[in-house]
UniProtKB/TrEMBL annotation:
Signal peptide: none annotated. It comes from Yinghuangia soli. The lineage of its organism: Bacteria, Bacillati, Actinomycetota, Actinomycetes, Kitasatosporales. This is DUF499 domain-containing protein. It comes from the Bacteria. Residues 1010-1056 are annotated as: Disordered. Pfam families: DUF499 (PF04465), HEPN_Swt1 (PF18731). Residues 1033-1049 have a biased composition (Low complexity). Residues 11-123 form the Swt1-like HEPN domain.
Amino acid sequence: MALTNNEKVLRGFDQLLGGMRPWVDMRMSAQAPAGKDWVESVAAEDAAKFGTSKTYSRDDVRFLLRLVTERWKVFEKDLSRPQSALASELRETANAAHHGEKFSSNDTYRALDTIERLLTVIGATDEADAVAKVRMEHQREVFEKQTRNRVARESQAVKVTGMQAGTAIKPWREVVKPHADVIRGQFSAAEFAADLFAVANGLTAAPEYLNPTEFFARTYLTSGLSDLLTRALKRISGDAGASPVINLQTQFGGGKTHSMLALYHLFAEGLTTSSLPPAVQDIVHDCMPASEGNPLSSLRVKRVTLVGTKLSPSQPIIKDDGTQVRTVWGELAWQLGGRAAFDRVAEADRTGTDPGDALDAVVRDIVAGGESVLILIDEWVAYARQLVGRDDLPGGTFATQHTFAQHLTEMAKSVAGVMVVVSIPASDSLDNGGGGSALEVGGPNGHVALEALQQVIGRNADDWRPANNIESFEIVRRRLFEEPDAAALADIAAVAKQYVKYYQENTGFFPRETTTGAYEQRVRAAYPIHPELFDRLYEDWSTLPKFQRTRGVLRLMSVVINALWDAGDQAPLITPGTVPVDDTQVFSEITKYLDDNWKPVVDKDVDGEGSTPKQIDRERPSFGQRALTTRIARSVFIATVPTLRSAHKGVDIQHLRLGTAVPGDVINHIGDARALLGQRATYFYEDGDRSWYDLAASVSRVAADRAAGYSEADVHAAIVARVKTAEREPKSSFGAVHAAPLDTGDVPDSEVLKLVVLHPKYAWGKDASAATSFAERLLLESGTGQRQRRNMLVMVAADREAYPELEGVTREYLAWRSIADEAEELELSPQQRKQSVTRARQLDAAVDDRVRTAFTAALVPTELPGQKPTISFTRVAKDGGSLAERATAALKAKGWVTPVLGATLVRMALEGALANAWNKGHVRFGDLWSWYTQYPYLKRLPNRQVLEQAVLGAAEVLLWQQDAFALADAYDQATDEYLNLWIHGDKPEPGFVTDDTLLVQPSRAVAQRSRVIDIPPDAPGAAQDGGNSGSVATPPASASPTTSLAGPDAQPPAPAATKVARRFWGVKTLNPNRPAADFANIQQEILAHLEAADGIELEVRIEITAAASAGFSEQQVRTVRENAAQLKFEDSGFEDE
């Protein structure tokens, strides 16, 4: 019985569990406390965080996925951010699958594909292959279902009618037949991919790859492959002058692995020369003329196959006898001579060091015994790049891998009968732009590995030529179509002659080479695919990053042929103009290689029922009878896809005609239809004789080019101009705003609380960043001197993650504004002028919005008593007033700015951080204010007035002896008395304070007042009974005229020990439209800091209140109740009031 989609997905997760379990276990074990199981550690941590008691298991794939996504630091060296996103996606999918949710066919494919990708990333190749089989079977079932349900649709074919019998050009479908798998649509990348590992280990059932005779029977012998076989036969048969090392360095999909398979099969044990195709037999006899009958029987060859994607430097291979093989050289020795050979390099394998002479001895002993050695290494870069930057893997280090490569090639060079063949992706400079090989190389580590291997192998290796374009055509044709019989060959010759005759009759309208006999031969060789379509694919499409030179052509053409076959296509050849772009499978295959969304462009201006070309064809019968405009649009699109970002976009008129025209077309109609399409299509462009499609209006392309051309300084200047507007906006708690200072001296060291908006080049990131470095300098320095007022600084920087978007939209704005300003010079049309003005205005607003979004990283000096100041971070909201207002709100929420201060808080500071100064009996106000401006362990006040009001507020503190202080104008050291002493209750109350105003300890003030009015200091109410009408006490008569008015020592106080906070609570109402975003901020800014405390006991509760004036529907009530129960809400319910 066929599996359901849910069962397929669950099988995929079973394989994911098998691959992830050892991978996660190894990394988590390395992080766990010594002697403790990491699963138990995670459970204990979660119990402490959430107050729950859960049991976790290594056998729960959802638990493993959660670890990968939530404990990023553990896995960051192994997974990039995009790769980690695979695990994030699979968390939700796993929950859905294990809860029995139904999966659509598309969702099933995505789930299996994502599982396969993640398994491949972590090196679980066996499990990835198993999932791939499930996915391909799923694809086959889906396609068969679609085929059964497909209704007859309008043929998109080009029909050549009106010719008499015997003279008409036969449709290609009547001449040749695709292979059965292409007709059924049962094609996949794997079927078109040679797999050296699978063949060498008997893991494929395909006879064309597994059986040497079948393989060579289906292999087209290119000149490059003939040369490779010749070199190998000479070297293996003992020719010391033949190439000992060959580097199969080609473009992406250039046939490297297929060529290795040819070498592998050529030296298969028991292969007879007579079983090979004549062309291969000729090569064997030419290389070994002295041998008669079966020359291959005289060769005894040890074959070694090492495939980098099937070897993992982090996971040893366990052989049948239990031997663990860790390194490439260990596997090489094992394949050469099993356990006995491996034992000779076992120590080097165990330590991950180069085997040196031990491996040489193994090889030389084999050769001395009359055997030759063929070593095939495929995908070496894929293996080596995993070693870059690592010194903890069983497979050794990258440096050792480099040494081994040099050692291996030198050994092959020195020992006759030994040959090493290595496949390395072509470097970017050899790759027509580098896209394919850059993808195959695999990121920065891959480039390091590629460069090193190229250098060491290139010293001793001979290079190898891939198939040329003509040979590539034959390779593709043989794979997609059955071989034509004699009658078919006659029809093919007639079609080729008819096409070239048509080109000759219209000389000047087509490229010159199409009128020659050589081009007629090309048409015959490529039949039923027009050479122009092959040229576009091999010359242009092969430059796309993801398009493989041979496999990509096979994939694309297989879906094109399948669609045309099902549609009953009657065209004589398959041309760019007959590619059914609107077919779902074809368009899906094309878009795999595109980064942009072309669907709207295709639907509107290329193909499909409502498209502009179809409308033109319906309106013009002379065009529509032959679908002429539609063919033109398809030809231009096929030419546009790979050339959009090149200097020569699209296709010239001669090659457009070549990719479109069918004998019988009126040649001038092609130009007319092109012109009409250019007039009516939104995305169709013409420039002279070239045509192309684009994703936007042509003026948009000008803007894009200009945007890319601006320097970083230009962008910074534009952003700084925006940032400087903050200097003129409402400043809230700040006395001044300084925008984009380039030097610490640009920010004055004043008593005003300053908001410093950092220059955009100083962006902030969670790790070390330019913003933090500049903030630390600004905190300590003011020009060439030291900064004193360190508590009067707050900085806001651009977030490093948000800045690229700000930079991009700024570039766009500058470009569109310049276009609008230069409308006359650019000769813009009225529509284009309007568009440029509108776009510039939109982007102007967008830049303002992105500035608000980017400049959200507040950097604030903080300090704990007894420690050095540090720069702390908090997030500034993007909405809610000016930058200063939003920064104030963020700082207030953290307690990092205090716009209103009470006398009680001043008293707390005096008894806390300032206790050393306060214990002297009084503190001078000027000194107190100076300390508030200097030391971040004190409250950060917007200005002096806040502290003045706090001091004057002592008059309102009822329990003033506990929570406030007395005031005085001066202190007489000689008499130990305060002049003009004021205590709570005295009238009039103080109206202002000066630098010399003294804050006096209540005990000392009460003692002095008691002496004056003869009330015992400890008498009830003594502090309140201040004498007549609250008059300030007069100094004793004995006061000397030379009384000292000096205040306390004004040196910066050493902070006293502070009380330790032991409990936190907080309440916040979340935005109901985006509660997840608010909660994420709470998690980052609050919970993360609380969790870091030792011995933390953390409880987080969620309370939801919802009221609907019209009431909730029965469905809503039922759904919410069920979900609340499923989520184990402690309490929930609905009410009718």
